[in-house]
């Protein structure tokens, strides 16, 4: 969803726009700032917003693992989880495997086209293990990573595309509509307020459950695989 589409959807909730209408660029820029401020606040309140980022990694011959985070092999923000990926083309997907599955691979330096990855979500750098390892083939790995919204640069203009998990869309639209209503002399309906509150509360609860599952997995010494983290 484009940032502009999200803003327009919020304004339709309070009757500022009709279907098919759009606001002028100055108003869009103001609404963008309101959206960014709202999502920062949500993070502080325990309802961290996540968005999906597409990453590209040029694989190095015989290299088994890659670090991910500031200063790592993938020098972008450390992911909360990896949702999927493929090598070179979408017809060559890679499997997300658990720590146990990776540990059971007898020879981790087997050359070939990578078919599996295991991501260890350590901090401050995550570590991604690739199997098999490339050998003179010049492969590239394309990944869909889930990351928390933290900075304005996450989406800097209304023309940027947002790839939130689908269950974030309604809470964001409804809560942004309530924030924008006073600027247009509108009053949010009680139904809209109820939807906004319900959605934000649900996000907090989802985030709390995911954090607890992650902590429990460490205490129980069981690996957190992609299936566990995919719900974030």
Element string (H = helix, E = strand): HHEEEEHEEEHHH
Residues in helices, as a percent range: 25-40%
What's the total helix number? 6
Low-confidence stretches: 211-232
As a percent range, the share of strand residues is: 15-25%
User: What gap, in angstroms, lies between the N and C termini?
Assistant: 19 Å
Spatial arrangement of strands, main beta sheet: 2-6-5-4
Shape call: elongated
Q: What structural class do the secondary elements suggest?
A: alpha+beta
Number of strands: 7
Described by strand count, sense and barrel closure, the largest sheet is: 4 strands, mixed
Instruction: Tell me, rounded to a whole number, the average pLDDT.
Output: 83
Any idea what the radius of gyration is?
21 Å
Describe the structure in brief.
With 232 residues, this protein is an alpha+beta fold.
Question: Which helices and strands, and how do they pair?
Answer:
Elements: H1 3-13, H2 25-44, E1 50-58, E2 65-68, E3 81-87, E4 95-96, H3 99-103, E5 116-120, E6 126-131, E7 140-148, H4 169-180, H5 190-219, H6 226-229
Parallel strand pairs: 4-5
Antiparallel strand pairs: 1-7, 2-6, 3-7, 5-6
Helix pairs in contact: 1-4, 2-4, 4-5
